Amino acid sequence: MKIINLVQGSNPWIQYRKSKVMASQVATILGKNQHQTPYNLWQEVLGLIPPQEETSPMAHGKLIEPYARNQFCEETGIDMLAVVGESDEHEWLGASFDGYNVEKNCVLEIKSNGIKNHTIALQGKVPESHMLQMQTQMFVSQAGFGFYESIDREKAIYTLRSLDLDDPNVI
Fold this sequence. Notes:
Shape: globular
Distance between the termini: 22 Å
Largest sheet: 7 strands, mixed
Strand content: 25-35%
Structural class: alpha/beta
Order of helices and strands: EHEHHHEEEHHEE
Mean pLDDT: 89
């Protein structure tokens, strides 16, 4: 994976995302995102409609992400960095990682979930749209495994699930 020197959320990062298929867009492209259609994503990428406005859950997720990443690092002993990466094999494919560790070859995805998706996480599963994002992140980085951290934004309770590509339950 090629690391791209961009700060997530910055204007250069926003421009970079317009030139790639990003891991966070894959569920939408496949019609598995309940919040956006493939057509709306296409319009947004081409600048035909304004970008999706930041929702309260999105703002909450951005706010707590650094704290959640630090908590993960403290509890697991695995240092994770927020990075942007591009596939070595497919330069049109990229990912913005909530956490990535080169030495351990793993990724971390942090989600500020509502009760529905957090309940799925508490059952030891990853919601399908999030799974598609993580699988793409793992493909881009060639990571052997990943961690999914779900935070119930109402109760500030979190759960952690590891994801191994060799797991038969992976989509």
